[in-house]
Design brief:
The chain is of the alpha/beta class. Helices cover 63% and strands 12% of the residues. It has helices spanning 21-33, 44-53, 70-78, 97-105, 118-185, 188-192, 194-213, and strands at 2-3, 13-17, 37-41, 58-62, 88-92, 110-113. Helix 2 runs parallel beside helix 3 (70-78) and helix 5 packs antiparallel against helix 7 (194-213).
């Protein structure tokens, strides 16, 4: 049974899991009036199957059900979805403090006691979905920042590589000049022509200075 959201400005698909039909109907109607899209299943097996095929944005999960209990369902879902990915609110008539601790330790995001106050239900559902949306938006921002950082890092490395290539080429050219002029100094012409020898020495000094600045 599916009720479409009346107010599309309020995002969120809520899966109601309860073995009592009246509870499912009342919950889904009140949530739909608040603007949520709702779907209902009557037991834990159906809930796990629904989550595996098309996970909702949030689950309202009854604790006391035949077969798989709400805690069993919660534990099974938490093997695949953490509390940030899929918020789960437990709904039960149990009011012992130990039950609340058990539910929270098993991975429940929140806990609502029966009989349900629908204003409280709506507020708790809204709060959990707003938190989930905020975390999702933050994760997207972080991914964008990581992508931008990776892009800038690649660009910087490319520029650095290009600069390194230019430096290597300049070094190679300067060394070639030094070797060429040094070899010429050993020739007979260098020994007999003082003017050319002075020009050669000046060229070697210039090439050495260039290497020093690279």
């Amino acid at each position: 049974m599916i009720h479409s959201a009346i107010n599309r400005g309020v995002p969120g698909r809520v899966l109601v899991v309860d073995d009592v039909e009246d509870n499912r109907v009342i919950l889904s109607r009140n949530l739909a009036r608040a603007g949520f899209e709702t779907e209902c299943v009557e037991d834990g097996v159906q809930a796990i199957s629904r989550v595996s095929t098309d996970p909702p944005d949030l689950i309202l999960l009854d604790w006391m059900m035949p077969g798989l209990s709400g805690i069993d369902v919660l534990t099974a879902i938490r093997e695949h979805y953490d509390a940030n990915q899929l918020p789960i609110i437990m709904c039960t008539a149990r009011d012992e403090g130990s039950s609340i601790v058990t539910a929270l330790n098993a991975g429940a995001n929140d806990y609502i006691q029966k009989p349900l106050n629908f204003s409280i239900v709506t507020a708790r559902v809204t709060a959990q979905l707003e938190r989930k949306n905020a975390l999702t938006a933050l994760a997207e921002i972080n991914r964008d920042l990581e992508d931008e950082l990776a892009h800038r890092t690649r660009a910087l490395m490319a520029r650095q590589s290009e600069q390194d290539d230019n430096v290597r080429q300049d070094c190679s050219a300067a060394l070639s000049d030094i070797l060429r002029w040094t070899a010429w100094l050993k020739t007979d012409e260098a020994q007999t022509d003082a003017r050319l020898r002075e020009v050669c020495l000046d060229s070697i000094v210039a090439a050495a200075r260039k290497l020093a600045t690279l």
